[in-house]
Amino acid sequence: MAAETAVRRVRHAAPRPSDTERRNAAAALQRALDRRDNGGVTGHRAN
After folding, report:
1. Domain of life here (predicted)?
2. Which residues contact 43 (CB under 8 A, 6 or more apart)?
3. Which residues 6+ apart lie within 8 Å of 38 measured at CB?
């Protein structure tokens, strides 16, 4: 086995999103889920 030192990588945490960013992300996720669930306004699901 080669004499290699295990390199430990530190994962730097991203800065915490602001409350507004979190709300916008949650709203976007909910819209995406709504579109998936019921076709949305421009949906094209064949029922």
Report:
1. Bacteria
2. 35
3. 45
Q: Is the pTM of this model over 0.70?
A: no
- On the CB side of 40, CA atoms within 13 Å amount to 10
pLDDT digits (tens, 9 = 90+) for 7-23: 788 877 788 889 999 99
The DSSP code for 31 is H
Cα–Cα dist 47/42, whole Å:
14
Contact 36, 42 (CB under 8 A): no
